[in-house]
Amino acid sequence: MEHNLQHTISLLTRTPAVLDALLRDLPEAWTLRNEGENTWSPFDVAGHLIHGERTDWMPRAKMILQSGESRSFVPFDRWAQARDSEGKSLSQLLDEFARLRSENLGELRALKLQPQDLERRGRHPALGVVTLSQLLATWAAHDLTHLHQVSRVMAHQYREAVGPWSAYLGVLQCAGHSAP
Amino acid sequence: MEHNLQHTISLLTRTPAVLDALLRDLPEAWTLRNEGENTWSPFDVAGHLIHGERTDWMPRAKMILQSGESRSFVPFDRWAQARDSEGKSLSQLLDEFARLRSENLGELRALKLQPQDLERRGRHPALGVVTLSQLLATWAAHDLTHLHQVSRVMAHQYREAVGPWSAYLGVLQCAGHSAP
Do A170 and B177 touch (CB under 8 A)? Predict the structure, then answer.
């Protein structure tokens, strides 16, 4: 389907509550374990989503509106959360993510974007020319890619425990395409 | 990690609220679309989870405790929701799933299972001998496989909308191993 700004906002609004319902006060055996070296736990994903709220989505949207294709976005640091999340609890990260997301959606709504604004173009440092519409659709799909990843990382912890049922569980066949 | 009954119950308890936070009142463009012929929408998945609560998990657990390996489980109908969900709204399905899950977890807790109970064996019609521990771990992993699927099905709707970012979104590389 085509990008629809209201559908995107509907989804972006829900993600903090989804992660909260799934992860808050869950045993650390689910939230702190990953899939092996250089992979992320649900705790790491929460930190990554916070970093995106601070440095990626709305800063890039505003850069498109202000500078168009003349300036490239600042590259996104996909490992920033190792530093930023240090010493924090998962509950603190979930609170921080919810607050930042709410502030960012407030800013997005205040822009009162019109269809012609969504066609405005910016420059991604690796992908080249992209539109504001594509950026906002990606913001929503990025939430989904990490919900997909968190489900997979958690299921991985029960890979042995499910015994022969592993053959029937699609999530255990997923090799983890997330980058990361 | 090994199966841990308390960790399993922690996760099973949360799934209705996770799906509620994600799907209730979300535009139907997200909840009713699937990935193509013979695939499931989030609405279909909700119906499938309800069918599991009614016919799969606790009925099988009780059969293991009552009959051991002497009786095979009733095969699970993976397409039952097409009939059972007819005429219902997604909100009704989410309510029904939450109620059934809560009842089933009440029954599970009431069994006061001990470690030796978890080693009791039953017979799966296709997989052969399985343990109660494996069945309960699979109940939790099955929730995760469908959360993984729902994330993927929803992201699929924005496959074109994200433009060149599709290369970076792991969820869009996932071919859908779920069966189905």
Answer: yes
